[in-house]
Write a structure and sequence with these properties.
Blueprint (H helix, E strand, L loop, with lengths): L1 E5 L4 H13 L3 E6 L12 E4 L5 H11 L3 E4 L6 H6 L1 H22 L2 E7 L21 H14 L5 E6 L2 E2 L9 H10 L4 E4 L3 E2 L2 E2 H14 L3 E4 L6 E2 H11 L7 E4 L19 H7 L6 H26 L1
Parallel strand pairs: 1-2, 1-4, 2-3, 4-5, 5-6, 6-11, 7-10, 8-13
Antiparallel strand pairs: 9-12
Helix pairs in contact: 1-7, 2-4, 4-5, 6-8, 8-10
Bound molecules: NADP nicotinamide-adenine-dinucleotide phosphate.
Length: 311
C-alpha cells in the first residue's frame, strides 16, 4: 500500500515515519515543507509538500498516486493559532481541503490527526460521538478540518489524540520536556491542578495510525494514553521518574498562567473504541516516561552529531 505522509518532520510525523519504515509493509513517501529530505538514507522516498499550496498538493498527489494520505501537518501551537489566525486557518483547515480535493481525484483516503481541543472541556474525558464545541481558534480550525473531511465524499479516518509528549530530531518542546528543563535548572514548576487530559506518548499515535490502516477502519478514533489526570499530578510523576524533588512542583490554577488562548479544562478521551476495534493498548505514563528518557538521549546525541558535521 502506497502511503503519503505530510509533516514528516514534526513530532508525530517523525514517529509515524520511524514506525512505517520499520514495519516495511507500506511504500512510504514522506513529505514536509523543506526542500531537502531530512533523511540521510537516499532510499527513503521524500518530496517537498506545503499543504497550503493547492497547486503543489495537486502535482505531488498526481505524481505519487497514494492510496492513503496521513496528515500529520498542522500548526499545533495553540497560542500561535490565536495570534495568527490566517496562517492557522490556511494550514489546519484549508490545507486539509487541498488534500481532500486532490485525494478525491487520485482516489486516496485520508487519515487526519485531530485533537481533544475541539471540545470545550466542560465534561471530559470525551467519547467519539460527543458534541464538539471548541473554545479557542486552534480547536476551531481542527474541527473545521474534520467537517471538511465529513463532507468531502472521500474515505477518511479521524484519529483524535491529546496532550502529546516525546522527543524527536529538532522537534518543538512539550510539557514533560519543559518540566525536566525547569527542574534541572533548580526552578519551581507551577502546574495546573484543574486541567485534565490523557498524556499520550507520540509513538502511540503512530501505532494507532498503523492499526487503522491494517484493520482498514474509517470514522473517528480516540487514541490517547490510558491515564486521565491533571498537569500537577503529571508533573509530579515526571519529577519522580527523572529523579528530581517532587516538592519543586507547585499546584496552581490554569487561569493563573494568563495564556493567550483559553484551554479546555476537562478534556482528554475515553479510548474504549480503539481498544476494541483496533486492539490498541497505549503506553502507561511510567513506561512512556522511561521511553522519553531514552528518546531524549538519542535525539540529543543525533542533534549534536549533525551540528558537528555542519561545523
Ligand atoms: N501536540 C499536541 O499536544 C497535540 C495534541 C492533540 C493533537 N495534536 C495534533 O497532532 C498533529 C501533529 O502535531 P505535532 O505535535 O506533531 O506538531 P508539530 O511537531 O508541530 O508538527 C507539525 C508539523 O506540521 C508541519 N507543517 C506546518 N505547516 C505545514 C504546511 N503548510 N505544510 C506541510 N507541513 C506543515 C510542521 O513543519 P515545519 O517544521 O515546517 O513548521 C511540523 O513539522 C497535529 O494535527 C496536531 O493538531 C497535537
Amino acid at each position: 500500500m502506497k502511503v503519503l505522509l505530510t509533516g514528516c518532520n514534526g513530532l508525530v510525523g517523525q514517529k509515524l515515519a520511524e514506525l512505517f519504515i520499520q514495519c516495511n509493509t507500506f511504500e512510504l513517501i514522506m513529505t514536509s515543507r523543506n526542500e531537502q529530505s531530512p533523511f540521510e538514507d537516499e532510499k527513503l522516498m521524500y518530496r517537498q509538500l506545503d499543504i497550503t499550496n493547492k497547486k503543489m498538493v495537486r502535482t505531488v498527489l498526481d505524481e505519487i498516486e497514494p492510496e492513503v494520505i496521513i496528515n500529520a501537518a498542522a500548526i499545533a501551537d495553540v497560542d500561535a493559532c490565536e495570534r495568527d489566525r490566517a496562517s492557522a486557518w490556511q494550514t489546519n483547515a484549508a490545507g486539509v481541503e487541498n488534500l481532500a480535493h486532490s485525494a478525491k481525484i487520485v482516489g486516496a483516503s485520508i487519515v487526519q490527526i485531530s485533537t481533544d481541543y475541539i471540545f470545550d472541556g466542560k465534561s471530559g474525558p470525551y467519547e467519539e460521538e460527543d458534541r464538539a464545541n471548541p473554545i479557542n481558534y486552534y480547536g476551531k480550525t481542527k474541527l473545521a478540518a474534520e467537517n471538511i473531511l465529513r463532507t468531502s465524499g472521500i474515505s477518511y479516518t479521524i484519529l483524535r489524540t491529546s496532550f502529546l509528549y516525546g522527543a524527536g530530531f529538532e522537534t518543538k518542546s512539550n510539557f514533560p520536556l519543559r518540566v525536566i528543563e525547569a527542574l534541572d535548572a533548580g526552578e519551581q514548576v507551577k502546574a495546573p491542578d484543574d486541567q485534565f487530559s490523557n498524556p499520550t506518548l507520540a509513538n502511540d499515535v503512530a501505532y494507532g495510525a498503523l492499526r487503522i490502516l491494517e484493520t482498514k477502519k474509517s470514522g473517528i478514533y480516540n487514541i490517547a494514553g490510558p491515564t486521565w489526570l491533571n498537569r500537577y499530578e503529571f508533573a509530579q510523576l515526571i519529577a519522580t521518574e527523572f529523579g528530581y524533588d517532587k516538592k519543586k512542583i507547585v499546584p496552581v490554577k490554569m487561569s493563573s498562567h494568563k495564556l493567550l488562548a483559553p484551554r479546555p479544562l476537562k478534556s482528554g478521551f475515553v479510548t474504549l473504541k480503539a481498544t476494541v476495534d483496533l486492539g490498541l493498548t497505549t503506553t502507561s505514563i511510567e513506561q512512556g516516561l522511561m521511553m522519553l528518557k531514552s528518546q531524549i538521549k538519542e535525539f540529543r546525541t543525533s542533534t549534536e552529531e549533525t551540528k558537528n558535521k555542519t561545523k
